[in-house]
Design a protein that fits this description.
3-stranded antiparallel beta sheet, alpha+beta
């Protein structure tokens, strides 16, 4: 009784040509191998791959737990008083993710403008602030409205264009 069995995986280094009553027979460097040996080899290789995936996931989780690098929107280091409110209602400076952190990629689309649901006003933000929203939607808890000249909770705002709520 013969059946064609193909295991074409270069990482395992096995190519099975056929199966008969005597066991598996292979072309290449391994003239024959038993089903039990094959199962052990596959389990070993799978366990090795799984371990590498788990190690990569653990590394990523560790990186996510570390506090991300930040700076002010102008690229400078945060200084005492950057959160103080000026006469126009804006802060002296806005804390954002560093350029290095933002360069890691975005989780959401990059959008520059949002609408305040209370007044209907459109506010457009700077690139570092917009990129921070795109990289980490939960970084900010509130945002500024140019028309109301104040800061309000994120759920009061929707993105211009698609109408989705700003934030996580």
């Amino acid at each position: 009784m013969k059946a064609l069995v193909v295991i074409d995986d270069w990482k395992l280094g096995i190519y099975a040509k056929h199966l008969d009553a005597d066991g598996y027979r292979y072309s290449g460097f391994t003239p024959s191998i038993t089903p039990g040996c094959l199962a052990s080899h596959v389990e070993y290789e799978f366990a090795g791959r799984l371990q590498r995936v788990l190690e990569a996931a653990e590394k990523e989780c560790k990186a996510m737990k570390e506090k991300p690098k930040t700076c002010l929107a102008d690229g400078s280091e945060p200084t005492p008083g950057y959160e103080e409110i000026r006469e126009n209602g804006q802060q002296n400076g806005y804390l954002v993710l560093s350029e290095e952190e933002r360069a890691k990629g975005f989780l959401r689309p990059l959008r520059y403008s949002y609408i305040h649901g209370k007044c209907g006003g459109l506010t457009t933000m700077s690139t570092p602030v917009a990129e921070t929203y795109a990289r980490d939607p939960s970084f900010f808890t509130g945002t500024f409205c140019c028309h109301c000249c104040g800061h309000f909770p994120l759920p009061e705002f929707t993105w211009d264009g698609d109408g989705s709520v700003v934030g996580p």
